Amino acid sequence: MSSVLTARDLIDRLSAVDPDTPVRLAINPLFPLQHGIADVIATKDALGRTTVYVTESGEQFGPVPPEVTVAAGWHEPTEAPRRSRTDIAAQ
Hints:
Largest sheet: 3 strands, antiparallel
Number of domains: 1
Helix content: 10-25%
Distance between the termini: 49 Å
Radius of gyration: 19 Å
Oligomer: single chain
Strand order of the largest sheet: 1-2-3
Number of strands: 3
Shape: elongated
Mean pLDDT: 89
């Protein structure tokens, strides 16, 4: 797969889910947060090529779920350390 996501790629991926499913932007691999989408805008660049922009709404919905950051390749899979009741009581 190309490192550039095309409109066709995006349409294919979105067509695989229920059309009433909310869509969010996952932003910033180092501190991943969910952001709302305001619009999709197509425009021409200086060479006359069309580029599509997905714009942020300004709404933030909290952290991106760990399974998303792993699937995106931003983070390695991790598990919370196991703690016994004696560990908790010692605190």
